[in-house]
Amino acid sequence: MIHIQLTVEEVLKRWPTIYSVFMLHKTQCPGCFIQHFCTLKDVAETYQIPPQELILEIESVLTEKSRE
């Protein structure tokens, strides 16, 4: 499912609600012209977010959305 090597573009195409996680961390990822190259690992490193925390937050949003 979610793994650190997925690109921002892949994640947003498959799960658009993940947008909220990027906004929570004040990233510029949604709409960025390199989102098709940038992985979740890159995002974690660039914005100094622990990678496991980023994955857990994404999974939490997906779990919450699936309950609706």
Would you give an account of this structure?
- This protein is mainly α.
- The protein has one domain (8-67).
- It contains four helices and no strands.
- It has helices spanning 8-14, 19-24, 40-46, 51-67.
- The longest helix is centred in the last third of the chain and has 17 residues, at 51-67.
- The model has no long low-confidence stretch (mean pLDDT 93).
Sheet-strand content, in percent, reads: under 5%
Helix content range: 40-55%
Instruction: Report the strand count.
Output: 0
Task: Kindly name the structural category.
Answer: mainly alpha
Largest sheet geometry: none
Sequence stretches where pLDDT stays below 50 over 5 or more residues:
none
Count of discrete structural domains: 1
Our count of helices gives 4
Strands, helices and their partners?
Elements: H1 8-14, H2 19-24, H3 40-46, H4 51-67
Key traits:
mainly alpha, globular, 54% helix, 68 residues, 4 helices
Tell me briefly what this model is.
By secondary structure, the chain is an all-alpha fold. It has one domain (8-67). It is built from 4 helices and no strands.
